[in-house]
Amino acid sequence: MEKHPGKLFYRLSRLSPEDQLPLRRKPRAKVYANPLETQALPPALEGGPPLFRALARLQPLLPEVGSALSLKDLSQVLYPLAEREGRRGFPSAGEAYPLEAYLVALRVEGVFPGVYHYFPREHQLFQLSAKAEASAWSQALMGLPLDKAAALLVLTLVPERSEALFGLRGYRYALLEAGYAMGLVLLCAVGQGLAAYPAETFYDEAVARLLGLPEGEYPGVVLVLGR
Q1: 108-143 pLDDT, tens digit each
Q2: Dihedral angle sign, alpha carbons of residues 173, 205, 199, 195
Q3: Of 202, 68, 67, 63, nearest to 138 (Cα)?
């Protein structure tokens, strides 16, 4: 029996095909019934820099057209993950960077189909496998339709990097970092007019097997990309 609290959490929270989610009613957001004062805010998405125009369109959408992505599309989507002057484009506690990124290329112009590891220092993709079966990935993502997807971006966690600096709290930081990075990548994708859908619910061991992940590296979130 695993006794390490952080590793135990990851083991107990993973999903397998025989598992069922509770899927109870959605919890209500926190509301203060008797605030001292209220202040309405002006519309945030009217005018402003291009960032706000992208935010106005920010919503998770599965690809509908089924066309390929260009290499430039891919480069811009991955740019928030790139290393610049020794740091990446998102916060990391202690600069431990427990995050790894993999691209599953299904239909990308000029790129062979397969699984690639993203190397942030050089902003490059290293091919690890020539297999990129949309049907296998669809099963791993609990039946999510991928027939029109062009690529999948998988963010994985190596929490022991953060644990080396912060102890067990490093497991919390690893999850936070995945959220920081995915938010920026999602914004970049939508800003280019791409369809992007973050899949957080999947069969962990199936995703790990498709990527060939080593022990101690865990799937965090899968972003479906396309048009």
Answers
A1: 998 999 999 999 988 999 999 999 999 999 999 999
A2: positive
A3: 202
- Of all helices (H) and strands (E), which one includes residue 71? helix 71-78
CA distances from 148 to 33, 75, 87, 133, 192 (A): 46, 20, 34, 13, 18
Judge contact between 114 and 132, C-beta under 8 A: yes
Contact between 121 and 81 (Cβ < 8 Å): no
pTM given for the model: 0.86
Residue with tokens 């992940």: 213
pLDDT tens across 43-61, in order? 655 655 577 777 778 888 9
Give, in order, the Cα–Cα distances in Å from 142 to each of 16, 28, 199, 204, 207: 10, 26, 10, 10, 11
